[in-house]
Amino acid sequence: MSPQSEEPLASVHSLRDHRKRGISFAQWPITLVLIGLSLSLVVVEFWSFRRGSIMLSAFVTLAFFLRLLLPDADAGWLVARSKRVDVIVLAALAIGLTVMSFWVPNPS
Predict the structure, then answer these.
(1) I need a labelling partner for 20 at 20 to 30 A (CA). Which of 51, 71, 90, 94 fits?
(2) CA distance 83 to 27
(3) Which tens digits make up the pLDDT trace of 51-91?
(4) Exposed/middle/buried for 64, CB within 10 Å: 0-12, 13-18, 19+?
(5) Residue 99 domain flag
(6) Which residues cross the membrane (predicted)?
(7) Is residue 5 part of a domain?
């Protein structure tokens, strides 16, 4: 056997070992953001629209900073396009949601 034929077997074994270990934390940025977005929607539905929308804008802002600061390899599924496009879109969403969430009048 040549060394070239052993390399794919080693990678297959490492994949199997990786699957046996359980949960992978490679996608922690998007997982954190999605959990926060889900919690904010629960707050909107059951408690306060304003607090939930502020939470929503905070977690979009978190996604913006994670995409801005993390390298592409660590950002995981937060990477949709180039870093510049992702950061511009997330910044626009974060600013827009923040302004709108404070603009909403208090319920009477």
Answers:
(1) 71
(2) 17
(3) 999 999 999 999 999 999 888 888 788 888 888 999 999 99
(4) buried
(5) yes
(6) 25-48, 54-73, 85-104
(7) no
